[in-house]
């Protein structure tokens, strides 16, 4: 009998992931025995599991980076903050979409379990310290999301969206793997921090490295939905059930941001000059194309998709400054974008009923007369996405533009300001529809009380952090400086 | 040229030929079978590299399971490739130009860019008791335990997704419920009605 | 032995290793084909006796020449290729079904050291080879251009692929107990008499393996693939003459292979039941005969399963059983009763 090597790993840093995986499997099993009318048991168990995961993150919070599982997993302040925010987003998404899912026969155990596995994939990506885990986390997340989009099988558009998402996502994965293999060929390692040391040591073949970098940046742009890799975003946002669109448009942004940070800052910081140029192109195109095309959209989900593209362009502008200021501005931007997007899609969900999809801009007509409070919340979300002063979106845009100006990219900052002026038009159009037009349907909006409370908090937080952004910004700076 | 080199070139030639036939043959079932052949020949190449576990796993998983299901689907679907290929010729000039350009660009970047041969140590000779399989197993369950588990979760998600997307209770299908059938009593099926006698007119 | 071979070695010179391997292959294949011939006779006899009939008794004494009569009949029959059949694949299919059935014998040890290829990953090799056999069935069904053949091939391929999983898991239990993939080592680990055979600690896996083996070979009561009452003869309905004989040969050869594997993995292979009695090839043959008899016995006893029942048995009964037992085995190996499971 040969001696067996023991698995002497430090499991504590991965406690949140372990909690989530175990509880996802448990919910999967329990759901089998829950009769149809009591499906809410699985729903509450899911919420409980994600909440438990979030508390586990707080419990193990790391001020200094800890690596485990043979250096494949890293737990640091950056990862913990993003993991925690992702968990919160998923909780909000579950609460917001309950009524919508139930009305469409999607209030099912599989939806919850797939959402949990998608969350697990995001967390794995966020805490990855190895190209292999980065890729596996990405696949875990993407696979769950493809399935979630396709879950509404009666809807032809959902299946079509899932197909497009899947095919283009697979293409992006291919690009990523190709890029990673190039970087491996140049450096001889897949471990993120060893890649940095090898490049700084001057042992890497630079041509191959840059060649791989092109593929990696393309894959990241795909996942973020930055122009010219944005083709899937409008179709998927529009085709997917709105609850799933809400999910796709929010939590994965954290994961994609972490992915980009781990890849570009964690392992390829030495070639920052090279990816900076690529990101400038992506950022510029995204801001212009996203904002201009969004104007001509009459479908809310499609409009928000182009808004997502444009916002990712702004985020990239902060990131490409390639210094701590830029990274934390970009992180702040992602956090605020997700907050605003959650509120915006939450309102779209609220407008939809059984058999009716609130997809057209006209559905927002006269919302103020129907439910003034919700109209106000939507106003906050739109102002925040547009970057209108008292809301947090203004500060976020300000921070990324400042970061770009600091590194001398004044022309880019000017373009950004112009783009956001164009963008303000279509956000304000919704506000105009809500406040100055007459409603077609006069019934006030009804929502469960838990959703009312969370949605109101979500909307008001846009205002609160807009007036007091220092705390949130401080958190981003601390998370980044303690990790990189 | 040693026997091993000859075998390698034989396998490699079959592999390339079979792979070409996968995309050129008109019948999708034939394409799938050519793919099986190319899996087999790549398994042979891996065997020559002493990667016996990978070679056998390739046959076991891809040839023995994946391709069987592939063939199943292809046979059932009755795909008409000729119809799909309509208008294909029109795209050839553009496609070929783009493909060639990418190829040339990549070649320019990559030629001579890789680590020279011998830069990484070769695996070296192994003793007779050395088992590729157990070495691989040890790696997977120790150093690579974390990615291995995540890969397992991905497979689990694939199962859940496949079942959730395809399994549904069809409303038009009528099922028997033996439980109910057994429990049936006379009262459920038979009703005795009291009818007044009718006189013959 | 080696001295006796010296003249032959000198005669062939450099080609000797190839010639010697070929000779060994022939030494395995020819008896195997004879075994298949007589297995068909035994099958008919045994089932006859069980049904209070005599069975074949006209050709030769006690009907002993019956298999040869069958073979000659098949050889002289015309091979009919159906219209619209895919000719190449139609003829490739029988070859693909018998090839793996023969190739798997390369790693079967008949006695200590008496094995064609003593490879480390023998068990994996066997699994790979048996999983490839399904192509013969699929291609035969597809290439025949006949709906009966196609239905039969779909049924049988789905069945084979499903039961392969349970079978593979059953063998995983064996490799856990033996902690080796080398088949000779697996047998050697069972030495020490009857009580050391793996059938005891792995009893559920043995049962699963045996039943899956029957299902793998499309034998009764799992022979819906050739369910006579519904689809005539399933995937080989369009085959006649020698092509049909090859399918027949493959099926029986697979049966013998399954019985050999069951004897090796669970019943101690060439080892004798008591340490005092010398080991050797006769023990393996005896065990194989016993397993084969069980196959025939089952065929004569049980009615045919319905197709959905077959699938349910495979996926919902056997796979969970094997999985649970593998986990149980792994857990027990960490306790102080571990010696019971090695």
Task: Characterise the protein shown here.
The complex is a heterotrimer of chains A (about 475), B (about 200) and C (about 350). With about 475 residues, chain A is mostly helical. Chain A has a domain at about 270-484. Chain A has 20 helices and two strands. Chain A has helices at about 15-30, 40-60, 75-105, 110-125, 130-150, 155-185, 190-200, 205-225, 230-240, 240-250, 250-265, 270-295, 300-320, 325-350, 365-370, 370-385, 390-405, 410-435, 450-465, 470-484, and strands at about 65-70, 75. Chain A starts with 14 loop residues before the first helix and ends with a helix. Chain B has about 200 residues and is mostly helical. Chain B is built from nine helices and no strands. By secondary structure, chain C is mainly α. In chain C, about 65% of the residues lie in helices and about 0% in strands. Chain C is built from 13 helices and no strands. At the A-B interface, helix 1, helix 4, helix 5 and helix 8 of A face helix 5, helix 6 and helix 7 of B.
The main pleated sheet of chain B reads as:
none
Number of helices of chain B: 9
Question: Which whole number gives the mean pLDDT of chain B?
Answer: 83
Order of helices and strands of chain C: HHHHHHHHHHHHH
Distance between the termini of chain C: 35 Å
Element pattern of chain B in H and E = HHHHHHHHH
Poorly predicted segments of chain B: none
Distance between the termini of chain B: 113 Å
Percent range for β-strand residues of chain B: under 5%
